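Issue: copy button drops trailing tokens. Both records pasted manually instead:
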Amino acid sequence: MSKRITIDPITRLEGHGKIEIFLDKNGDVANAYFQVPELRGFEKFSEGRMCEEMPRITPKICGVCPTAHHMAATKALDALYHVTPPRTAILIRELIYNAFMFEDHALHFYFLGGPDFVVGPDAPKAERNVLGVIAKVGLEVGGRVIEMRRRVRNIITSLGGRVIHPVCGLPGGVSRGLTEEMKEEFTATAAEAVDFGKFSLDLFAKVVLENKDYVDLIAGDIYKHKTYYMGLVDDENRVNFYDGMIRVVDPDGNEFAKFAPADYLDHIAEHVEPWSYIKFPYLKAVGWKGFTDGPESGVYRVAPLARLNASDGMATETAQAAHDQLYETLGGKPAHNTLAYHWARLVELTQAAERLVELMDDPEIMGDDIRTLPTEKPDEGVGVVEAPRGTLFHHYKTDERGVITQANLVVATVNNAPGICMSIEGAARGLIKGGKVNDGLLNMVEMAFRAYDPCFACATHSLPGQMPLVVEVKGPDGEVLERLSQFVED
């Protein structure tokens, strides 16, 4: 007799989702589905709003990565108004953005993903959280994590206006420059952030890499998929979070495509399924072949490990050394091991910290020229940044008054949606055998999505802008008294 296992809600992520696992008569996994039942409609209700509002509207999609949406929207306005910000403004934007990447990566490693390794994947459920992590590493370390995030987030607050939904981005620049007091404080914060990055890498080495069971889990086949990878790179093909060209490598690590962000529609298309509100992007040149990996499948992945795979290396010294150790341990580049996303996240956290130091050492960041006023009529613009969860696209079209007529958002987690589904099914098939299921095994299935640090609050869409809905009114005995539906084929 077949059996159905439901994990609802899944935990330690941003947003909501559930996992359905179907076992065959032998107790093995026949299929597994990852469903996202929530819906956002920002692309639709942005229509008719003034384009200058977009950097303030779109961050409301999510309270976890609003800075990524704010910055992508601001860059889209630059393109839409055909205006280039002064270098000082670009440096300030980079300062804000690297601060955001640092604190967000720290949030995921210590609060969301870290408990699986620091506390243990099969530890009691009540201990697999940040309190369990603090119990393992000590109050002093816990206090350092909280204090470091507070200080780095203060960079965003001071320059961005507020940390949750910043308001500093303007077409052609930013609204506020640095003061001498800020420079002194941020310089000290940046130096401490670098030390914190090294500390986090050392902690990962001690807790994870010195544990053979964990290394076998990361390097094994249960959490491995050979896909294409995408990420922004600078002019030397090094990882860049704020700007650059989009580079795609194939499953063997060869460059498959390299294009300007404005040309993304020439390379990316989106597939939809009736059982989820999330879309499934794929490489146009390869095509959608279903939830399969390999060079014949257009599935690609984004976010920390994908960015490292798509690049030739890191842009800063300590991060580059950590990058080299990661690939030496995992047997070369590209690495297809999904759980290694956690490790890559710490490599990127370190690069973000080192970039903060570089930016504070640049005398031009103290300049007064922080905005180029737009003079041309707006029409169409694309803005792209690397969010902590992957490549984020904002694409707007306006009339000549600057009123939004069309908006398209390909958010970071959406790019990873096919990979997340494949990883969950692969983990379920690899871990559940003969009907033997327990809480630890189900948590290890959840680890397959948690490595991506997904944000489903950002990621949901519905084509063609309609929300299928079924409401059943049941009596005390469970009988259906009335059934209401919209946009559903009976």
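Record 2 (pasted manually too):
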Amino acid sequence: MKPRAVLIGVLSFVGLGAMGWVLPRWTVFLFSLALARGLAALSVALLMRAGLVSFGQSLFFATGAYTAAFMVRLLGVREAGLLLVGAVIASMAVAALTGLWITRYREIFFAMLSLAFTMILYGWLLKAYWITGGTDGLRIPPPTVLGTAWSVDTLRSVLYEATLVCTAVALGLIHLFLESPLGYALRAVRDNEVRLEYLGSSVWQVVYWAYVLAAGLAGLGGVLTALNVGHVDPQLAYWTTAGEFVFITLLGGTESVLAPLIGAVVFEFLRTYALKYAPYTWQMVLGGMMLLLILFMPRGLWTLRHLRFRKAVS
């Protein structure tokens, strides 16, 4: 990575961190949700590098969120760090099991199987009322962060900072992964699987480990959402949630690890204002946004960066 890019990244991180203490609480809350959903969208973008479109990342998003809720309710764990670790491990464990089967399929079969798994979880969350709370869901009490029980006014900013740090670490790890031989092999899967097999690499193993890694990202996004909202419900596993992740990915683009995060921030604020000013037609607003995007920026908002660069050159 170029020194200039590193400097811009550090300054952006410091600037975003400062925003948590000066912006209104509702804005900080929206940014926290956007970053958490951006991680789930990044997991979709990661699989798209291999030419796979997943409509089931809500399976791991909900797994991460409910794991945190169960750890609080059944084990009495309140420390945010432990909840994050437990949720990511649980999400990756679920992916390690389902991936043994689903990663053998491609194209529409992969998309539909991923959707089927998340709807199975959704159905279980609805029916197992005695442990999941059914449609009411489960409440998550305010967690401790670094062993400290923060006041209600401060906790919102502290959780935002924690979300920002987790997002930055995840972005760094995904960037390293994509620049590793396994990351290049993932792109080769999309271009020509047969040729990759001829080179001696196992296509199934490449897709499988990318699938497990993507699940960890989505699970991290799920637990961060649960901690910021303080509540989990089966809607987290519903197909519309998975559809939102695909929407956000297309909105931001897949060319950079930052693109899904930009898409998530735009999506979260667009949906909030659409709900405020057009509460009965906000889905139409989002649909119109998607149509315009497909017509004029089919590779997502990240292409605006290239336009700015071309203007600077000319």
